[in-house]
Amino acid sequence: MLPSLLEVYDEPFADSSALPSLLLSKITKEDVTVALSGDGGDESFLGYNHFDLVKKPNYFLYIPYFVRSIISMLIPKFIFKHRAEKLKRILKIKNDHEFIEGIFTGYNSITLDRSLNWLSNYKNYKHLSRNNYQRTADLNIKLWLENDSNVKVDRASMAFSVEVRSPFLDYRIIEFARTLPISYRYYPGKKKRILRDVLKKYIPEEVFDQPKSGFSVPLGDWIREDLRKEMLEVLSDENLKMVHNLNIPKFKKMLNDHMDGNADYKSYIWRVYVLVKWIKNNNLDEKNYQ
C-alpha cells in the first residue's frame, strides 16, 4: 500500500497510521458509504495518554534548575542507552510551559532541538487557558487534529469514496467541553470521564473499559525486516543528499542503530523515508522544494 499512500496524500505525510486508515476505508466501503468517526473526542475530553504527563512537572520543578542541570550531565549513557537523551531534556525543562511544548516537539528526539520556534505561531492560542490540561488540549486541536488527524482520515476515506462524519468536531460540542471542569473530563485511570458515564447507560462498561490503544502498525519491525531492503535502497547516501539541512551522519547512525536493534527510531526513519520518496516521485531537488 506504500504507492497508494504517496498518491493519496500527495504531500510528505508521515503519520504511519495512514496505512491502516487506508485499509479500514477500503474495507468499510464494502458495506457502507457514510461512517462516523470519533476524531476530536480525545482533544475535548482529554483522552490521550500524554495527558498523564501534564501533572509530572509539578513534582520535579520544585528541584532548582541548576541542580537538575547538574544531574542531567551525570546520567550515564551506557546504562540508559537511547533514553539518556530523553532524561536529560526532561531534567533541563525550565517551567511547565516548556514541558507542554515538549510533549509535541518530542523530548525523546535527538533530531529536534528545543530551540525550534515552530510553536511560536501558536503561543497566543495555547494561552487562552491557564490550566495546563486545557492548554495541552488546545495545542492538540491546533497542531495535531488540524494538521494530522483530520488530514489523515479525510484523504484516506475519500480515496475509497467513504463519507466520514465527525460529530465531536461540531463547534458546539468543543465549546461546551471547554466549559466543563477538568475533573468532569479527566482523572488518572479514567480518561474521557463524562463520555464513559454517558456510554455506560447504553453499553456494559466492561465492553469499553479497555486500555487506550493507538491506531498503530508494527513499523519498527517492518523497517528491520519486511521493509529492510526498501528502506536501505531509498535511504541511500545519494538520496539523503536531496533532503535540505539533514544531518546525514547522525541520521545514518540512527538508521543503523535501529536496524541492529539497539534503539527505536522508527518514527524518525519513517519521516525521512516518506520525504525522500515524495521528493523523488515529484522529481524535485533542493532548489525548488525547500
Tell me what you see in this structure.
By secondary structure, the protein is mainly alpha-helical. The protein has 2 domains: 25-215, no CATH class; 219-289, no CATH class. The protein has 20 helices and 4 strands. The strands form 2 sheets. Strands 1-2 form a two-stranded parallel sheet. Helix 2 packs across helix 10 (132-158), helix 5 (65-73) packs antiparallel against helix 7 and helix 8 runs parallel beside helix 10. The chain is globular and about 55 Å long. 19% of the residues are buried. Mean pLDDT is 83; it is low at 107-116.
In short:
This protein is mainly α. Helices cover 56% and strands 3% of the residues.
Name the poorly predicted regions. 107-116
| Main β sheet profile | 2 strands, parallel
Helix content estimate: 55-70%
Give the class from helix and strand content and strand pairing: mainly alpha
What portion of the residues fall into strands of 2 or more residues? Answer: under 5%
The global form is: globular
Strand order, sheet with most strands:
1-2
Radius of gyration: 21 Å
Helix-strand pattern: HHEHHHHHHHHEHHEEHHHHHHHH
Number of domains: 2
* Mean pLDDT across every amino acid position: 83
Protein topology:
Blueprint: H1 2-9, H2 18-28, E1 34-36, H3 41-44, H4 57-60, H5 65-73, H6 77-80, H7 84-91, H8 96-105, H9 123-126, H10 132-158, E2 163-165, H11 171-179, H12 182-185, E3 186-187, E4 190-191, H13 193-199, H14 205-208, H15 219-224, H16 228-234, H17 237-240, H18 248-259, H19 266-281, H20 286-289
Structure characteristics:
290 residues, mainly alpha, two-stranded parallel sheet, two-stranded antiparallel ribbon, 20 helices
